[in-house]
Design goal:
The complex is a heterodimer. By secondary structure, chain A is an alpha+beta fold. In chain A, 21% of the residues lie in helices and 36% in strands. Chain B starts with a helix and ends in a 6-residue tail after the last helix. Classes of the chains: A alpha+beta, B mainly alpha. The structure holds adenosine-5'-triphosphate (ATP) and magnesium ion.
Chain lengths: 378, 304
């Protein structure tokens, strides 16, 4: 990876409002050159709008956009060293696939256009369709042409607006690898918008979770996953169990928090709030179930007892739902290391997890914010 | 026919598959076929026959008898080829002028005023408004506007674009102006229909791929509006080439006469039916050839 000198992209207090609606709200963002940056967030949170302001297709209401250290806020789109893979593909219907891909190269009077076009089309496995028109392609093929059309230009900054959304799983994985390879080989900077959190986490060095026009949290995927800063991030990136509690004291590097009747310990450096009401969080796969008579290991937090209300076997793991009085339902993922489910429906269990996996969030937010609404999923 | 069908649907045209599937609905064509047989095929047949007639020997003026006198064509052409050529030149200039004036109009209405449907509607009504009064009346009005003592001539003389004794009426300029004016809506409407369907995201994609606004226009907007341009140029050129109203009212009968005017005169003043018919047939054939060549070169058959 190249030495970090000037950031590839810098947004400073960028705001975009449509009438009275704030689509992007005072956004600050710095993306180092050569990095793979993923922008993750629910539909309508302002991802596309942010990319459009970077590309120059939308003028920010206020704020500054710098690309490669140069203020481009007032520059027209065609003067910016940026290419976009549009969410809607936006292929030119009057041009063949090959001419679509060659469009940017021709505008900049590049040499070896044909060879570069062929290489780009081969990359997305469409080398044989160069003479077709966009209307003669399937959705996934059109999406790959859009990808080739942008990548072939090797821009300083490539903006990808859900570039793999229409592809099947196998092709998507393959394209992910290709994208990652091109990005590291050529040292380009990618800003990748996606709904797919797995895609974001596997591909990106930095993930930003966006919500309602703001970036909630930004960092390496591991950090975002293990130390979310808001309930939204905790729920949107993976699943979380969040229980309301009160900070009652401190014991060295640990906060003491009462949750339901129990007292749990939260490492201070993993807590966003250290006084008053907090949300205590833990990831489902970190929790172990204790049946009657089993004692927790040392340095474990324990809540419960609760009743197992659902057991679903998924192969690699078993997912339990445990109803704990006053605290609500906890999800628990248990790896099937020793065969199938070890606890049956209706069993009375306690929940235990290592203190170091506990995180603490500010107490005055909705614990369910950002959680997948299971009824609304297709 | 595909041209008109394409214009009606905004240039989209039915898919070939649908055409094949429509085989069971052939009777839908019946009214059109009857109409065309009565009002197109029969007159054209009559025209072709008449163009080969010869005068009744010793007969009165305007009396002819059936024959196969091909010499009519040779005579008509050798006498009236300047008017024929002039018709096409005038029509071509008027078509280009219509395009130059009409395309920006259509562009503003379709692209710039996009999303403001009230403004779009108003502008479109303004484009068609001239049709509310008669073609002849409007051309006579032009005669007044361009008259020697009129304001246009006065203004042009004042800025020395026209010599002090220069005039506009009875010049080729006036005829071409009249043609341009009268056929302008036929250019604006099809081009508007094409541009209206232009996806603004195409323009954004162009800008994103380093094309300046001018280049984006040249490489994206213009090619995507070609069906409208081809439709518009045909709708202007064809009637303009055969027009006789503008050249009669705004021209001077000698060096501005167009072929339509000649045919009119041959038919109704000199009663020389065979020559008039021969000229009509030649005009029709020439237009057909030109249009076929043009559509082919424009390469938009599949777009129409
Ligand atoms: N031109 C516009 N006029 C008014 N509102 C707009 C406009 N463009 C976007 N918006 C609004 O701004 C918000 C953000 O839109 P944006 O397209 O950035 O969402 P997104 O995060 O890309 O969503 P998705 O994941 O569904 O693509 C949405 O609520 C949208 O309705
Ligand atoms: Mg979007």
């Amino acid at each position: 990876m190249p030495e970090v000198t000037t950031p590839a992209l810098e947004l400073m207090s960028v705001t975009k409002s449509f009438g009275s609606f704030l689509a992007v709200d005072d956004l600050d963002l710095t993306i180092p050159a050569g990095s793979f940056f993923a922008l993750l967030g629910p539909s309508g949170c302002g991802k596309t709008t942010t990319l459009r302001m970077v590309a120059g297709l939308e003028q920010p209401t206020s704020g500054t956009v710098c690309i490669g250290g140069r203020d481009v806020t007032g520059d027209r789109a065609h003067r910016r060293p940026v290419n976009t893979v549009f969410q809607s593909y936006a292929l030119f219907p009057h041009l063949t696939i090959a001419d679509n891909v060659a469009f940017g190269l021709r505008r900049r009077r590049q040499h070896d256009v044909d060879a570069k076009v062929k290489e780009a089309l081969d990359l997305v496995e469409l080398g044989h369709l160069g003479e077709r028109k966009p209307t003669q392609l399937s959705g996934g093929q059109a999406q790959r042409v859009a990808l080739a059309r942008a990548i072939v230009n090797r821009p300083e900054l490539l903006l990808l607006d859900e570039p793999l959304g229409a592809l099947d799983l196998k092709l998507r994985r393959q394209m992910q690898l290709e994208l990652k390879r091109i990005q590291t080989e050529v040292g380009l900077t990618f800003v990748h918008v996606t709904h797919d959190q797995e895609e974001a986490m596997t591909m990106a060095d930095t993930v930003a979770v966006m919500n309602k026009g703001k970036i909630e949290q930004m960092g390496p995927p591991e950090e975002l996953y293990s130390r979310p800063h808001t309930a939204f991030v905790a729920n949107f990136l993976g699943q979380s169990n969040l229980a309301p509690g009160q900070v009652v004291g401190r014991e060295g590097d640990l906060l003491l928090v009462t949750v339901g009747g129990a007292t749990v310990k939260v490492p201070v450096d993993r807590a966003v709030a250290t006084t008053g009401s907090v949300l205590v969080g833990v990831r489902p796969e970190k929790i172990g179930l204790l049946i009657e008579g089993q004692e927790p290991s040392p340095n474990h937090n324990v809540v419960g007892p609760g009743i197992v209300t659902d057991v679903s076997f998924t192969g690699v793991s078993t997912q339990y739902q445990v109803e704990v009085e006053h605290l609500g339902t906890f999800g628990v993922f248990s790896q099937n290391l020793l065969g199938g489910a070890t606890v049956t429906l209706g069993t009375k269990v306690r929940l235990a997890w290592s203190q170091e996996f506990t995180f603490g969030l500010d107490g005055d937010q909705d614990a369910a914010e950002g959680a997948a609404d299971l009824d609304a999923e297709p | 026919m595909s041209l008109l069908a394409g214009l009606g649907a905004g240039g989209g045209g039915p898919a070939p598959k649908e055409r094949a599937r429509g085989a069971g609905h052939r009777w839908l064509l019946a009214p059109g076929l009857v109409y065309l047989t009565v009002f197109f095929i029969v007159p054209v047949g009559a025209l072709l026959a008449t163009s080969l007639y010869v005068p009744v020997p010793g007969g009165e003026l305007g009396q002819y008898q059936p024959a196969l006198h091909w010499q009519n064509y040779v005579d008509a052409l050798s006498q009236f080829w300047p008017q024929l050529v002039r018709s096409f030149v005038f029509a071509a200039i008027a078509t280009l002028a219509c395009l130059a004036i009409g395309y920006p109009m259509a562009y503003v209405i379709a692209v710039r005023a996009r999303g403001r449907s009230l403004l779009q509607g108003l502008l479109l009504v303004l484009v068609i408004a001239p049709f509310f009064t008669s073609f002849i009346l409007r051309t006579i009005a032009w005669k007044q506007i361009l008259a020697d003592e009129g304001p246009v001539v006065a203004a042009l003389r004042f800025v020395h674009l026209l010599p002090p004794d220069g005039r506009l009426t009875a010049t080729a300029f006036a005829v071409v102006c009249g043609l341009t004016y009268n056929f302008l809506p036929f250019m604006v409407l099809p081009v508007y229909a094409s541009l209206e369907r232009l996806d603004p995201r195409m323009l954004e994609a162009g800008a994103d791929l380093y094309a300046s606004p001018v280049t984006t226009f040249r490489t994206v907007t213009w090619p995507l509006s070609l069906p409208g341009v081809v439709g518009g140029t045909l709708l202007v050129f064809i009637p303009a080439a055969g027009d006789y109203v503008n050249s009669s009212l705004l021209g001077n009968n000698t060096n501005t006469a167009m072929i339509g005017q000649v045919i009119d005169a041959r038919f109704f003043k000199v009663l020389d039916y065979p020559t008039a018919s021969a000229l009509s047939v030649v005009l029709m054939a020439a237009i057909l050839l030109l249009v076929a060549g043009y559509v082919r070169r424009a390469g938009t058959e599949d777009l129409l």
